[in-house]
């Protein structure tokens, strides 16, 4: 919890997971203290996973620089929302793209594609060891800045439901 104070007279506590301003929208802003860059906009169902990813970063002594999270589908036309053939977990708020900040520097896509610095390797190994997470560097077409929970593969029906809700109401 954080607090917002006005002239030290009144303070209001608020959560790091801020609810969306739109009714029915499952996407929330969630920014753990070791995340930099863009605010992570993720599905409320993915917040605990983000917290786990954050704990892995802390354990490895790194911070994450978020470059992308939830994405609106730009191919939607009109009021009908139909799940697309290509099911990106970004479109349901179950994925982040990131770079890794460590004591020796900044590990971007070029760095993440090569010999990883020790703290970055420790973080990536923690992601790989978590059976509920996928690192994009392990994809058949590597996407080294990507981490997700595989919702599109493990539960495509739930992905469809969350896609319709996120794309319609957010």
The assigned structural class equals alpha+beta
SSE string? EEEEEEHEEEHHEEHH
Beta-strand content bin: 25-35%
Major sheet details: 6 strands, mixed
Into how many domains do the coordinates divide?
1
If you compute it from the alpha carbons, what radius of gyration comes out, rounded to the nearest whole angstrom? Answer: 17 Å
Task: Describe this protein's structure.
The chain is of the alpha+beta class. The chain has a single domain, classed as Muramoyl-pentapeptide Carboxypeptidase, domain 2 (2-Layer Sandwich), CATH 3.30.1380. It has five helices and eleven strands, in the order E-E-E-E-E-E-H-E-E-E-H-H-E-E-H-H. A hairpin with an 8-residue loop joins strand 3 and strand 4. The N terminus is likely disordered.
Quickly describe the structure:
The protein is of the alpha+beta class and 170 residues long.
Offer a few descriptive terms:
single chain, 170 residues, alpha+beta, Muramoyl-pentapeptide Carboxypeptidase, domain 2, six-stranded mixed beta sheet, three-stranded antiparallel beta sheet, 5 helices, 28% helix, 26% strand, disordered N terminus
């Amino acid at each position: 919890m954080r607090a917002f104070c006005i002239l030290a007279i009144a303070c209001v506590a608020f959560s790091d997971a801020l609810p969306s301003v739109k009714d029915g929208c499952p996407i929330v802003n969630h920014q753990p203290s070791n995340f930099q860059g863009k605010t992570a906009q993720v599905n409320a169902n993915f917040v605990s996973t983000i917290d786990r990813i954050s704990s892995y970063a802390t354990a490895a002594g790194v911070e994450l620089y978020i470059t992308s999270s939830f994405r609106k589908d730009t191919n939607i036309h009109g009021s009908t929302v139909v799940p697309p053939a290509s099911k990106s977990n970004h479109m349901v708020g179950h994925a982040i793209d990131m770079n890794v900040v460590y004591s020796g520097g900044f590990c971007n896509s070029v760095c993440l594609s090569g010999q990883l610095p020790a703290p970055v390797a420790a973080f990536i190994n923690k992601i790989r060891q978590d059976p509920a997470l996928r690192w994009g560097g392990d994809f058949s077409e590597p996407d080294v800045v990507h981490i997700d929970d595989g919702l599109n593969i493990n539960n495509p029906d739930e992905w469809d439901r969350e896609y319709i809700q996120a794309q319609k109401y957010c």
